[in-house]
Amino acid sequence: MKSLVLLLLVAVTVSSVVSKPLPEDSEAEVHKEFETWKVKYGKSYPSTEEEAKRKEMWLATRKKVMEHNTRAGNGLESYTMAVNHFADLVPFNIYL
């Protein structure tokens, strides 16, 4: 019985740690980070519409990386990730 209670307590604790939202960055901070990333990897886009699409993909990748690294920081993953030069692509684009 004690083992079951302990297991339940651990499960609830892990669940609460994993489900905590990531801290929100300001729009200006995110924009600056995207611009810095573009310069680092030599990214440019033919139109503002294309840049907006690529920024959305970059944001989705960034969110996945941050969520993964939060789990890694809590011991739930064995490695960390980083945003790289593929961050503005969807998987379909990478393999073309």
From TrEMBL:
Pfam families: Inhibitor_I29 (PF08246)
SUPFAM superfamilies linked: Cysteine proteinases
Domain Cathepsin propeptide inhibitor positions: 34-94
InterPro entries from the UniProt entry: Papain-like_cys_pep_sf, Prot_inhib_I29
Keywords in alphabetical order: Signal
Secretion signal, residue range per the UniProt entry: 1-19
Protein name: Cathepsin propeptide inhibitor domain-containing protein
